[in-house]
Amino acid sequence: METRAIMQPVNPVLPGVGFTAERLLAPRQAIVAFFSRVAVTPPGVETVALEDAAGRVLAVSVVADDDYPNAPRALMDGFAISARTVPGRLKILGSVAMGVAPETAVTVDSAMRIPTGGMLPPGTDAVVPIEDARAQDDFVWIEASIAVGANVAPRGADMCKGEALLAPGRRIAAAEMGVLAAVGTTHVAVYRRPRIAVLSSGDELIDPSRRPRAGEIRDSNRYAIAASLRAMGASPLHYPTLRDEAAEFDRALQTALSECDGVVLTGGSSVGERDRLPEAVARIADPGVVVHGLRVKPGKPTLLGANGGKPILGLPGNPASALFILEAVAAPIVGALSGAPVQTSTVVARLAEPAASRIGWTAYIPVALQNDGGLPLAHPLAVHSFSVSLAARAAGFVVMDEQEDSLPAGSLVTVQRFLGGC
Questions:
Q1: What confidence tens digit (pLDDT) does each residue in 48-75 have?
Q2: In whole angstroms, what is the distance from residue 142 CA to residue 128 CA?
Q3: What is the Cα Rg of the chain in Å?
Q4: What letter would DSSP give residue 246?
Q5: Quick count: other Cβ atoms within 10 Å of Cβ 157?
Q6: Under 8 Å CB-to-CB from 307, ≥6 apart: which residues?
Q7: Coil, strand or helix: which one is 364?
Q8: Cβ atoms within 10 A of the Cβ of 362, count?
Q9: What ranges in 79-199 are assigned the alpha helix state H?
């Protein structure tokens, strides 16, 4: 029977030693290391109706099917004329109707009323705004000269037939929806939303419907993680809680990998005796564990692994740590699986109180925002990784990089808002 050579992580944990600072990777290093070993691609393509395409990711190029506009159109209400005929008095031949190609040709001594967006009649090459003309009965007086093409959108001014407008990997928002409709795309080829298994690990976890006894904890992680994944464009699927028995752990992880495009698991990723995830991933996945342990606060016991192109994200069991790591570190991996970068929202604020970190470590500082009439004030919150309510109390977080050990009060900071927030 052929045995698989187990690939070592980029930063292997020494047996009997546990995490050591010199072997931990900074978050950016971890992501680079992950993508250097794992080729993550969207799981497939499906076609959806245009009205269902918002928020999805394009899987094909979109090109213009015609010139837009497909004929010269007026940019203002006024009179369609031949520019060489003014200044002067012109006879009004009638009005251009919207949505109809005018058949009457305008001669050198005449004009036609035209609304904004109306198609220029034959013989005209400019539009005189209504406020620059004086009309009476069947005549209009235009007292100033005008350039050819003035107040006219020429054919193809917006889009030319065959022009590439939207590239694969573009997330469809309001502007993209407008383009798709304009070029007649009523059904859109998009990347299928990746199915990501969401699992929690721990004998102490119980369903939220139950009342905890001493030592038990309601499993809140899976719901926070699933909501964040959904905001990233994935389809989370809940799987049963993993218990600490090794055989059961392996079987459940294998099942999730066989049925989904990726796995996110909270708990069991550290170096304790009952932290089953690292060994399980090494046994059943290839390349297995890529990164184990980050030089970050909170979230040190993070695992990044894969089975083929299917990511395995092992997040800390502590609720605040798990959400911070998913949104601050693992989001690029989920984005690659979804076909487009995860869209984040940031706001510039001013620190109301100083913030502290540790040189050589990346820190995620949760902050509450206060409207101060100008730039909002960011109030740093104490980081308790065990806290379920911390992320709900915060509007987002500030990233302090490895070169910073403090930020004084009054510093301008960029606050990354939690996904799905306002």
A1: 999 999 999 999 999 999 999 999 999 9
A2: 8
A3: 31
A4: H
A5: 14
A6: 257, 284, 285, 286, 288
A7: strand
A8: 21
A9: 174-182
Alpha carbons 331 and 311: distance in angstroms, whole number: 12
Q: Map tokens 């076909």 to a residue.
A: 339
Phi, psi of 203 (to 5 degrees): -70, -20
195 and 235 Cβ atoms separated by less than 8 Å: yes
Tokens of 282: 């090494």
Dist. CA 7–CA 9, nearest whole Å: 7
**Distance from C-alpha of 165 to C-alpha of 147, rounded to nearest angstrom:** 31
What is the Cα–Cα distance from 249 to 251, expressed in whole angstroms?
Answer: 6
| Local structure of 323: helix, strand or coil | helix
- Give the C-alpha separation, 290 to 249, whole Å: 19
The angle at the Cα of 137, spanning 151 to 128, to the nearest 5 degrees, equals 10
Q: Residue 269 — pLDDT band, cuts 50, 70, 90?
A: confident
Please, are residues 64 and 98 in contact by the beta-carbon 8 Å criterion? no
Q: How far is the C-alpha of 202 from the C-alpha of 26, rounded, in Å?
A: 27
